[in-house]
Amino acid sequence: MITTEKEYHVILERVETLLENPDNIENQDAKGYVELNIVSDLVADYEEANYVIKKPTLVEVLKLKMMEMELNQKSLSELLGVSTSRVSAYLTGKSEPTLKVDRTISKKLGIDASIVLGISIKPFY
Questions:
Q1: Rounded to whole angstroms, how far apart are CA atoms 58 and 82?
Q2: Computed over its alpha carbons, how large is the radius of gyration of the chain?
Q3: 125, part of any domain
Q4: Which pLDDT score, from 0 to 100, does residue 115 have?
Q5: In the predicted structure, residue 124 carries a pLDDT above the cut 90
Q6: Same domain membership, residue 80 and residue 46
Q7: What is the dihedral of CA 41, 43, 48, 52, to 10 degrees?
Q8: Residue 124 lies in a domain
Q9: Which end of the chain is more exposed for a tag (fewer CB within 10 A), N or C?
Q10: Which spans in 20-93 are helix H?
Q11: Arithmetic mean of pLDDT, 82-95
Q12: Tens digit of pLDDT for each residue in 13-43?
C-alpha cells in the first residue's frame, strides 16, 4: 500500500519504466509482467483514494452538450420547451430546472439522470 506522495511518485516512475517494454504488458512470462500488474494496482488504489474525480455539475454538462450539439441558448430553450431567460438562469446557476424539465434534459440531451438530479447512485451490494 502506498502511504505518501513521495512513495506514489517513485512507484509511478517504476510503472513508466516497466511500460517501456511492451512484453511487460502482453507477455505473462516476461520478467516485469507481474511487477507491472502489482505496482499498477498500487498506483490505482492510491489515486482512487487521493485524487477523487468529482461528478460534473448539471451546468458543466449542459454547456458541454450545447457545444457538442452546436446549440445556443435560444435553440436549447426551444428543445427544452422553456424560455431563453430560464435557460440562462439554469446555465448561471441562478435557478434549477423543474422535474419535468429535468426529464426532458435527460431524454433529449442524453444526460444521465443522476447528473440532472444532482444525486449519487451507489450500488446495492
A1: 17
A2: 22
A3: no
A4: 86
A5: no
A6: no
A7: -160
A8: no
A9: C
A10: 23-26, 33-50, 58-68, 73-80, 84-92
A11: 94
A12: 999 999 999 999 989 999 999 999 999 999 9
Q: Range of 20's domain? A: 5-50
Question: pTM to 2 decimals?
Answer: 0.58
Q: Which residue has the cell 506522495?
A: 5
Residue 59 and residue 118 in contact, taking contact as beta carbons nearer than 8 Å: no
13 and 45 part of one domain: yes
Smallest Cα–Cα separation from 77: which of 68, 92, 64, 90?
Answer: 90
Instruction: Return the CATH number at 86.
Output: 1.10.260.40
| Domain assignment present for 13 | yes
At 30, give phi and psi (nearest 5°): -65, 150
User: How many domains does the structure of the chain reveal?
Assistant: 2
75 with 102, same domain: the answer is: yes
CB atoms within 10 A of CB 83: 13
pLDDT range class, residue 53, cuts 50, 70, 90: confident
**pLDDT for residue 52:** 83
Residue 105 CB neighbour total at 10 angstroms: 25
The CA distance from 68 to 58, in Å, is 15
Q: Cell numbers 454538462 label which residue?
A: 61
